[in-house]
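Let's practice the habit of predicting before peeking. Look at the sequence and jot down your guess about where helices and strands might fall. Then scroll down.
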Amino acid sequence: MITFESQHKDIWARTGKLRVGDKTAKTPLLLPVINPHIQLIPPEEMQKMGIEALITNAYIFSKSEDFREQAMNEGLHSVLGFNGIIMTDSGAFQQSVYGDVQFSNTDTVRFQRQIGSEIIVPMDIATPPDRDHEGAAEELAVTMERIREAMTIIDDGHLAAPVQGGIHPDLRKQAGEEVRETGAVFCPIGAVVPLMESYRYKDLVTVVMAAKQTISPGSCIHLFGAGHPSMFALAAAMGCDVFDSAAYALYAREGRYMTPSGSFKLAELSELPCACEVCRSHTARELQASPDKEKLLAKHNLLVSLAEIARIRQSIQDGTLWELVDERCRNHPRLLDGYRELLKYKDVLVTRDSVSKRRFFYRGSESCERTEVIRYHEMIPRFSVGDAIHISLSDDKGPEGATTFLFKPPFGPYPSALKETFPIGQSEIPQWDEDMIRSGCVAIIQLIEANPDIPVTIRAGERWNQVIADALQNVEERYEFI
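Done guessing? Here is the structure:
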């Protein structure tokens, strides 16, 4: 049986515990991809590095003259020398690349059970991004039929239920609903590797957010093929709990050196900007010349990936994931596209985000769209007022008898009693700019509209009068500057 327990949350991210049988792993979780024929880092060594789970390919094992019989007789854990959780992919990727691989849905499911896989994946269809709506719908129907068929074979809760549907949001929502009806706990979102390979992070956000809105909130979400640490934070913010990575090894074979912000060609580095054991025991030149360069580079890449997962878990616990997403997504223009696309879902994200957090750092206009700002604006109509309202950008008390609201952008007006509470008291704001002032004006409008018969005065000063006047055009007859 697979179960998932959420512990801490931030945006749509969760830290939690994934229980598979009698084994438990912390989430967010990274699954290194293992090819039994090409093991740059043996699984037993990975276990010493703190790896709690890995993923391998059932199709490769089924066709392997070296490992098939051993896996069938002894099980994957014995073959790989790994005691943690082992997930197997079905061979759907090979089918999508090579066509008919003569490995049916029932074949792969039964084979995965026979070799001791603990998270079993049916033969879903990985719909490519260029598939039209009709074709994607037909393939989704086949995938769902195969999931239901597989559940008649794997009926003890160890079956994963992939969410497909191509690049079409309505189909991804439909897939999420149908997967939810199966009761599956482990739900991979599939066929997204082509989007990541072509840096289509905006489309990735559209696909994942469509699926997430209909998948059960209690399910553990695996983003198939999300292998580079630079995008882990963005994916976690969308509610993805598990990632698998072959990139640590593939990049090593190409001589590429991973960092949380991107990758470099090892041959072009004169310094190694990392504190892992590989980088602290080698210079760039020594690593380039080492006969074990590929293995050492793979180990560095995996350690960087693990460190990023740990950093994300800590950010979730601290309530600072937005800052990490902002930092990571500014390292590439296409990631920034993805970040901005995610912010379009702020009204959805706010429904599950934490009410109180450790801090709010303003990092530019994107910060005005964050869930903390939206939630504060939603609170504005609940403020109690007297016979008049005064909003001050300069800490004055206003006319006698008026209820005075101070002003802190991007949130807007606030009563002095909230000065030390979140988010007002725990927010760090640089020198005010027009974007944050306009965001605060959203709250002014809400305050005015919640109190239609009460006079409102605003003291802003010459610098901000025009910005505020422009932002308040729709309520210009219901307030006055003083």
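How did you do? The chain has a mean pLDDT of 95.
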